[in-house]
Amino acid sequence: MPANRFYSSFDFETLDSRTAYPGEYRSPFQIDRDRIIHSSAFRRLQNKTQVFLSGEYDFYRTRLTHSIEVAQIGRSITGWLTQQSQFLDDECFIDSDLVESACLSHDLGHPPFGHAGERTLHHLMAPYGGFEGNAQTLRILTQTLFSEGRSGMDPTRALLDGVLKYKTLHTETPQAKNHYLYDEQERWLDFTLGGQAFPLELTPGKVRNGFRSIECQIMDWADDTAYSLNDIADGIHAGFINVQRLERWAEDQDLSEADLADVAFLCKAVRENRVEGRLNRLIGDCIRATRLVPAANFLSQSSRRHQFALEIDPVQRRRADLHKKIALELVFLSPQLQQLDHKADFILTRVFGVLRERYIDTVQPKGLHLMPAAIEKDIQVAADAPARARLVCDWIANMTDHFAFRTYRRLFDADFGSITDFV
Q1: Which of 137, 174, 203, 407 could form a disulfide with 109 if both were Cys (CB 3.0 to 4.6 A apart)?
Q2: What is the pLDDT of residues 234-245, one digit of tens each?
Q3: Are the C-beta atoms of residues 320 and 95 closer than 8 Å to each other?
Q4: Which of 393, 400, 67, 407 is nearest to 230 (CA)?
Q5: Cα–Cα distance between 297 and 199 in angstroms, integer?
Q6: How confident is the model at residue 17 (pLDDT cuts 50, 70, 90)?
Q7: What is the pLDDT of residue 398?
Q8: pLDDT of amino acid 148
């Protein structure tokens, strides 16, 4: 099979040299994908919240099923672009394995309880460098994926660039609540950029975070497509969205004719009990709404990954924004989910408080063993309180929803403590 001219050694390079095995039949991007799929961090996504707490019902999406759907959409977009774009052909094309890897890993860093958990950990970690889901994904890929959380998978430069939606360090935008990297991750950011400094016009924050490789842009649109449609579907199946609520909501909004037509489309799908089929059809529209356009920036000479931008049909972009607004106001801001968000905040705050007193505020060589022995050992030799806090945060962020519930009950529920409760 001829080499894909879209990529060069710059894209395949890793920060540390990978072991070369005799007879290796996989490309570097396929190795990336396989390491992600066979990791415990990926498996844990099956019990992490997407919209509803995992385990509420067996047909609602979790972070795992969402990631698989994003990967399918991402691969389909690459196939569509190869077929349609004048800039690509059978010997020069965007690698679908690379895009799939970025899509499968994009939510690895999300903590239990979805965005509510992310907000809580950001608040709790504020004195120690903050918490951000995308930054935590980078930390998992580069530092904690293997060896019981003490080494990364040594990803290719192209995969790191495909995952890094945000390229601003925390201290560059200290008031930001999200969309940043940890300061200690500057090493991997520098590697991703090939050692080149950002030009002055790419200022920290929103402008710099908008600088993305073509694979990252595909992953982001695939993610938008998946959750803007599938969160609506789950909200309908759960009863949060019905015809009456949709119509009342639309009456209170200043919607365009196109938006009103989309609301009517959703109402018809609900009335006819054809929600999944109708929304799945829109996924194809979102895939075909993409096209490549030439772009130029400070990395264009280093990689073709930065020679193109993904242009989205404004009609599909508008529809995705409408669906996200509906999901936010009718589902995520509903009293039922806000109550769960409050409970998630309460649980994580209390668990973190106990661990902070035991492991972060002071170094206690002896005491109750509240965390796994390997992590305790790392904490004992950590350089300072922020480093200890990051290890504690890693453990909490890795928790599934159910494990977080059980940990809370072990620590605080007087009726939870028989030997069977610890299974």
Answers
A1: 137
A2: 889 888 999 999
A3: no
A4: 67
A5: 9
A6: confident
A7: 95
A8: 56
| Of 72, 49, 43, 71, residue with least CA distance to 61 | 49
Residue 421 confidence (pLDDT) above 60: no
Alpha-carbon 234 to chain mean position: 19
CA contacts within 13 A on the Cβ side of 29: 22
Locate 208 and state its tokens.
């710099």
Considering the chain, what is the average pLDDT of its residues?
92
For residue 305, the model assigns a pLDDT of 98
Strand partners, 308: 294
CA distances (Å), origin 194, targets 5, 306, 355: 19, 13, 38
Q: What is the mean pLDDT of residues 210-237?
A: 94
Which amino acid is located at 166 in the chain? Y
DSSP characters over 328-361? IIIIITSHHHHHHHHHHHHHHHHHHHHHIIIIIS
Q: Which of 181, 187, 224, 186 is nearest to 205 (CA)?
A: 181
Query: Phi, psi (5° rounding) for residue 49?
Result: -65, 135
3 state SS of 48: coil
Please say whether the beta carbons of 313 and 26 come within 8 A: no
pTM as predicted? 0.94
pLDDT at 58 over 60: no
Residues making up the chain, counted from first to last = 423
- Give me the domains of the chain, ranges plus CATH numbers: 9-13+26-209 (1.10.3210.10), 214-335 (no CATH), 340-422 (no CATH)
Give me the residue label for tokens 């690459």.
Answer: 78
As a whole number of angstroms, the longest Cα–Cα distance in the chain is 67
- Residue owning tokens 């529809």: 319
